[in-house]
Amino acid sequence: MNPIRVFLVEDDPVWRKGLIDFLNKEPDLTVVGEAGFKAEAIERFLPAKADVVLMDINLTENNLDGIETAIEFMALRADSKIIMLTSLTDEAVIVESFSAGAVNYISKSSFKEIPDAIRAAHNSQSAIHPTAAAALRNEFLRLKNDENQKLLSPAERDILQLIHQGHTQTQIEQSLHITKRTIKNHINRILKKMGVKTSKEAAAKASQKKLF
């Protein structure tokens, strides 16, 4: 019988290596791919042709971007079987994980349970019914979109849209009839809200999230 193919997404390289070594000692499991952050994970996911995914919830600080990555995986392959790994026990985070399409949720401190969880996921012994998971996932996406829409003010969205279209600060000033000082203040607030360093990054992120 072919071993169960596992894809691991974990930002801590030491923990990732340790878990890979641990799983590869199981005769019926083999790690076929790994990634340390969201973009890398999305790029490597489909080529790995994994049966089960182990996904760390926090790939960068406390952004819960593992949940976002899980949503991307489900969009790429609807039958993905994703197990979320975390040290968090917040009930809301657990709900978000299942809403994103996860079939199980395991604390990293319970790593010895991971091999059996992988086998259960592979055998479709989900912790939540697929229909309920789909409904939860849709609701999570709707709430996430509502949250995103409230992130920026109308003026901030207008500025980012013009930046995304390639307008200079002078052109933005003329188009929106506001001063450069006001534009700069808006941009500073936008950078803090979106957690990026440049206005171009903010505009690209806003476009990706369909904020304008």
Walk me through the structure.
The protein has 212 residues and is α/β, with parallel strands linked by helices. It has two domains: 4-132, Rossmann fold, CATH 3.40.50.2300; 152-209, Orthogonal Bundle (Arc Repressor Mutant, subunit A), CATH 1.10.10.10. The chain is built from ten helices and five strands, in the order E-H-E-H-E-H-E-H-E-H-H-H-H-H-H. Strands 2-1-3-4-5 form a five-stranded parallel β-sheet, with helices on both faces. The termini are far apart. Residues 5-123 form the Response regulatory domain.
Question: Low-confidence spans: pLDDT under 50, at least 5 residues?
Answer: none
Broad shape:
elongated
CATH superfamily grouping of the largest domain: Response regulator
Instruction: Give a count of the beta strands, DSSP E runs of length 2 or more.
Output: 5
Biggest sheet record: 5 strands, parallel
Percent of residues in helices comes to: 55-70%
**In percent, how much strand structure appears in the residues?**
5-15%
Distance between the termini: 51 Å
pLDDT averaged over residues: 86
Number of helices: 10
Assigned CATH class of the largest domain = Alpha Beta
- Roughly how many Å is the radius of gyration? 20 Å
CATH architecture of the largest domain: 3-Layer(aba) Sandwich
Order of helices and strands: EHEHEHEHEHHHHHH
Spatial arrangement of strands, main beta sheet: 2-1-3-4-5
Q: What is the domain tally?
A: 2
Structural class: alpha/beta
- What is the CATH topology classification name of the largest domain? Rossmann fold
